[in-house]
Amino acid sequence: MKIVSACLMGCECRYDKSSNWIREIEQLVKEGKALPVCPEQLGGLPTPRNPAQIVGGDGFDVLDGKAKVIDDQGNDVTEQFLQGANQALRMALTIGAQEAILKERSPSCGSHVIYDGSFAGMKRPGLGVTAALLVRNGIRVASEESGVSE
């Protein structure tokens, strides 16, 4: 069993109320092999919402209190991202998930690359907040861009 970013199975839960639908991810959910989660919604953020980026590091730095998640209006949404990550982890542990397939570049779900916090479209290596928490708890994290495995 695995968890997947809900936007990847077609839920319109991205910040701009769109999805990143991938047929294979939706199929995993239909077959009961994956549970969709949206950490940002689980943390209490609305949809649609202002885009946010990690400023001052990556998801591990946010978990350690060394970086923040800020939206494009300057609002600190770190607490909501932390709450959402904790809820996603709870769901993953409850179903015994050993793997997560997450949306790359997301400040929550990025597993290899995130935006750099400048809101200028620049990217940097790093993990989002939820991805980092899952990794810290022994759950393998993959990107939708690295392919879907059964």
Secondary structure layout plus pairing:
Elements: E1 2-5, H1 23-30, E2 34-37, H2 39-42, E3 52-55, H3 59-63, E4 68-71, H4 78-95, E5 99-102, E6 113-115, E7 123-125, H5 129-136, E8 140-143
Parallel strand pairs: 1-2, 1-5, 5-8
Antiparallel strand pairs: 3-4, 6-7
Helix pairs in contact: 4-5
Pfam families: 2-thiour_desulf
Organism: Fodinisporobacter ferrooxydans
Protein name: DUF523 domain-containing protein
Structural commentary:
It is a single chain. By secondary structure, this protein is an alpha/beta fold. The chain has one domain. Helix content is 29%, strand content 20%. A four-stranded parallel sheet has the order 2-1-5-8, with helices on both faces. Helix 4 (78-95) packs across helix 5 (129-136). This is DUF523 domain-containing protein. InterPro entries: 2-thiour_desulf.
Main sheet record? 4 strands, parallel
Look at the structure and give the mean pLDDT.
96
- Series of H and E elements: EHEHEHEHEEEHE
> Roughly how much helix do the residues carry, as a percent range?
25-40%
InterPro entries: 2-thiour_desulf
Protein name: DUF523 domain-containing protein
Pfam families: 2-thiour_desulf
Give a brief rundown of this model.
By secondary structure, the protein is α/β, with parallel strands linked by helices. It has five helices and eight strands, in the order E-H-E-H-E-H-E-H-E-E-E-H-E. The protein has one domain (2-146).
